[in-house]
Amino acid sequence: MRGTRVLAPVLLVVLVLGVAAAIVFSIVNQSAQRAAQQAASAVVTVHGLVGSEKKDYLTDPRVLAILRANDIDLQIETSGSRGMALRTDLANYDFGFPAGVPAAKQLIAERHATQSFSPFYTPMAVASWKPIAEILIANGIVKKDGDDYYIIDMKRLLQYMSDGKRWDELAHHDAYDVGKSILISSTDVRSSNSAAMYLSLVSYLENGNDIVQNDQQAQRAAAVAGPLFLRQGYQESSSAGPFDDYTTIGMGKSPLVMVYEAQFIEYLIEHPSARDPNMVLMYPKPTIYTKHVLVPFDDKGAKLGALLESNPDLQKLAVEHGLRTSDADYAQAFWRKNGVRAPRTLIDVIDPPSYDNLEAMIRLIEKQFNSP
């Protein structure tokens, strides 16, 4: 009996402690669940339109992880930059992220945006091949800059293209003995920013090294530029199309292709074992930069834009995708480490025409496409 009297209080204490522990565990578990729910509710879905040339960067799992860590769940749809500015459903999105300042300015006007973000940019360039480069060098159209890249005299090349010259009419053309017209392959100027930047270069040269500023100048420039697009035949609406032909089909189909520098660099970085040693990048003189401008339509879009522009890890990942940021030292070091050579700076750089003047030229060329 005495042992029973001693054991009973001990069991009572154990029971009380067990109940208390269960209560504490339940409270802690509930608190953890609430914290997890709150953290999940803090993550916002940000839905936007982007140019196809940025798709690989914005769907990179490393980029998405950094955005998620900063409470952003990014969802994108690709859209041509020119078409993006003309869409009637922009209210369904949190931001637009076109290539090129003209399209961005139109988006700003359409959505009455009060801010924009420019996290990175890329020069326009021409993807080509060493045998082609040597032919153009022999004909005074291209010169080599050091051991790594080439500079195109765009005014001289434009004259050859406008005159309808063919490759087999050039001196020292044995490495490319074909009767094809000398043309730069591009995307469709009616839908793609890279083609619009090509048009900007042509119009600048045709306008006496001045940016087109009025309807009369636009008409003259479109009359010269239009055939350079029409004579190409079928053109794709995305910049990925002609670049894929360049890398897969090769020199026979694509001796000269207007590209974003970032496409070329990204390909070299991502395909080190598949690099063709004959692939070269040529920089037009003058050239033009494509700024990638994010236009937020609401606070969620603004949060994304600020993060892409300021987060150092996101900036470094942009460089890995071939894009240029404000940190030129990092870009040069990373690219060289990966066997990529690109000029640190380009000094002969022009601006595109205003959105209205660029649109005027595109509409005039569109009429040339539609004329019988």
Sheet-strand content, in percent, reads: 15-25%
Structural class: alpha/beta
In the CATH hierarchy, what is the architecture of the largest domain at level 2? 3-Layer(aba) Sandwich
Give me the number of helical elements: 15
Low-confidence stretches: 35-40
**Major pleated sheet:** 10 strands, mixed
User: Which H/E pattern describes the elements?
Assistant: HEHHEHEHEHEEHHHHEHEEHHHEH
Query: How much helix is in the residues?
Result: 40-55%
Report the span from N to C terminus.
115 Å
Q: Which fold name is given in CATH as the topology of the largest domain?
A: D-Maltodextrin-Binding Protein, domain 2
CATH superfamily of the largest domain: Periplasmic binding protein-like II
Number of domains: 2
Mean pLDDT: 89
Which overall shape is indicated by the principal axes computed on the Cα atoms?
globular
Care to count the β-strands? 10
* Rg, nearest Å: 28 Å
Class of the largest domain in CATH?
Alpha Beta
Task: Provide tags for this entry.
single chain, 372 residues, D-Maltodextrin-Binding Protein, domain 2, 50% helix
Your description of this structure?
- The termini are far apart.
- Mean pLDDT is 89; it is low at 35-40.
- Helix 8 packs across helix 9 and helix 9 crosses helix 15 (355-370).
- Strand 5 (142-145) and strand 6 (149-153) form a beta hairpin.
- The chain is an alpha/beta fold and 372 residues long.
- It has 2 domains: 44-121 and 291-337, 3-Layer(aba) Sandwich (D-Maltodextrin-Binding Protein, domain 2); 123-290 and 345-370, 3-Layer(aba) Sandwich (D-Maltodextrin-Binding Protein, domain 2).
- It has helices at residues 2-42, 55-58, 61-69, 81-86, 101-111, 130-138, 154-162, 193-206, 215-230, 240-248, 261-270, 299-310, 312-320, 328-337, 355-370, and strands at residues 44-50, 72-78, 95-97, 117-129, 142-145, 149-153, 257-260, 279-285, 287-296, 349-350.
- Strands 1, 2, 3, 4, 5, 6, 7, 8, 9 and 10 form a 10-stranded mixed sheet that branches.
- The protein has 15 helices and 10 strands.
